[in-house]
Amino acid sequence: MVSFIVRRILVSILVLLAASFIMYVLAANSGNPLQDLQGSNSPNRQALIEARIAQQHLDVIPPLRWVLWLGGVAKCVVPVGGGCDLGTTFANQPVTVLLPSAMVSTLQLVTLAFILAIVLGIALGIVTALRVYSGFDYTITLFSFFLFSLPSFLMAVLLKSFVALGYNSFLADPHIPLSTLIVVGVVLGVLVQLAVGGPLRRRLVAFFATGILSALILGLLSAADWFTHPQLGPVFVILFTAAIGFGIVSLLAGIHNRRAILTAAINVLIAIIAYFALQGLFNISSVGTLLTLAIVTVAVGLISGYFVGGYDRGLMMRIGGLTAFLSAGVVLLDRFVQSWDNYVALIGGRPIATVGSQTPSLGGDVWITGIDTYTHLLLPTISLLLISFAGYTRYSRSGMLEVLDQDYVRTARAKGLPERTVIVRHAFRNMLIPIATLIATDIGALLGGAVITETVFAISGMGALFNSGLQRTDVNPIMGYFLVIAITAIAFNFLADLAYAALDPRVRVR
Questions:
Q1: Which end of the chain, C or N, has fewer beta carbons within 10 A?
Q2: pTM > 0.70
Q3: pLDDT digits (tens, 9 = 90+) for 489-501
Q4: Is 214 found in the same domain as 326?
């Protein structure tokens, strides 16, 4: 194992060196780095040109400049002679200062979209594989290919035009007409009956129940002015946390497993008690307080699963941890909603933002700033999510179909195991092997795709840093962007190799 890791590190260093050389030479020859100064009317134009040439070593050919840049990168690995040095921009700003803030903005944007794309894509892929060649399968397949074919800039522009501007205008008069309620009910009813499948009578019941219920709920929310003054309250928290516990138990263990029911019930009860007990603490909370509560919440879920688990502690700990984490999310969601009216008043009544990652000079507590971050990153996250999850859906579907045709799955069914156990415990793990490869390759592409998304939404992240450097032929910020992308891609490919051994006992690292 140690020798494998050492070999991979050495190979990765060689790949990184070769790729950085090619990237540096291409970036340096992509344009004229003095173009803005040569077209200037400044009386000291020649002095500015000579200063930039001296600062950026533009009188040295690009391969030798790459060697100088590499010397500064080496100081980041072995901090001697002044510490890490990735060069400076044309504005004389150190790249090592610009990178951290740009990375934070991009990670905020990419991380949630990446996680949601994996979760939703795998879930939909499994469902379509179990309902192969059904109406639901054909609908998801068509939807996936449609999203996969859309350019990222077009998706971003459509979201800004129809979601942000449309919803902000809707809030000025939040009344849903009857025709819209009928259309929404019909669309949701069609989607649900496709997912339910089965005999015609069953699908008709699902269609009418879903359509009537969704139209009724939207009508009540509109009549109660919920869209301008949203609130959840204890009834919602209790019902939703109970539904989370029931769903996790049904999915992972089955509703007949008493230990699973007890584990989920303990964590749901703790979440409900915490909802009433921690309201005062929430009013004075900070980010550190919320992170501490999150760690304690997951720890309580794992501990409860360990003591209740008996012969199957691993499964009970997963049930306890997931139930505790998701239930705590519902409690936090309620607290964020309580601050929604104050936030809307502070920003002038149009909450869904279309540019930037935060509102300049916005004051407020952790709840106000949290809502502000959410409203700014909502559309970019949806844009990246819709484009990314289509691939995971297709790979999950094909992987599950291949696994379901294996002998060990047929044997598990022949032994009389429940279908949920066959899918979750036997097929799901082996289906994840190609997904691990896809995740490793997709993370670099997702970070690269954020260049376009950040440009459309005016977010000052890694994409903006790369784009501004490319437009001015400013090589140092381009290479800073390259380093982050390349190291991330190499690290995730290495983790994918290790994941193969964890997912498939036949794979061993030698």
A1: C
A2: yes
A3: 888 888 887 777 7
A4: no
